[in-house]
Write a structure and sequence with these properties.
The chain is of the alpha/beta class. It contains ten helices and eight strands. It has an eight-stranded mixed beta sheet with strand order 1-2-4-3-5-6-7-8, with helices on both faces. Strand 3, helix 1 and strand 4 form a beta-alpha-beta unit. The mean pLDDT is about 95.
Length: about 260
Amino acid sequence: MANLTRYTDIVPQGILTRFVDVWTPPQLSADARLPVIYMHDGQNLFEPGHAFGGEHWDIPSAVQRVMAERGLPGAIVVGIWNSAERWRDYAPEVPMRSIEGTPIWNALLERAGGRPQSDTYLRYLVEQLKPLVDRRHPTLPDREHTFVMGSSMGGLISLYAVEQYPEVFGGAACVSTHWPAGGYNLVDAMGTALPRADQHRLYFDYGTAGLDADYEPYQRHMDEYLRTAGYREGIDWVTLRFDGADHNEAAWRARLDLPLHFLLK
């Protein structure tokens, strides 16, 4: 694919090696510099041949649509492929300690194959991957132009990234966030650790079918934390419900323009 660079030789410390795709909008001027969105489950973003079930997000079309229809400058998108230890990488490490010893913790350990290691994953993203992307691509590297985005467990790690590195990320899009991985204890732990509202933008959404059918009570609980923390709905925070939307790439692709616009506006 044109405008796509695939890195196959970045060796992280403490987690499994995975591919990283970096897509840049075409026809940039020589001096153009763009915001960056770091996205999880990167193999599902650009090419259907690599995507889960053959359904991809088609990020290039969505970014170029937002550029054309909403007059935004676009963004460089960094797709970090997941690994065989996806759940360990994406389960928020510190908040998950609130459920240790409970049945839901035991279920997480069995599903993930071990304890969460998301602090190591985020160090890789912030300390190793981001400096490389900023050196080799025309980025705007400051917090105001650096974002993170993901779906399901990727939604959890996206919010956790902003909470752990509020000086690095200016916002997160958490699509179909898989709150049941830790239940209300997880929501409470993450809700009390939100970054400053006047410096960050947070997007949440969920459907009503499949796994998403269980999400609304948890998300509404998180919404209360956002209000208490001073986030202004529609300005620096939004939560959207999509009736009938399922938990899959096709559903996320259908509404992708909305989180992109919210982060880049």
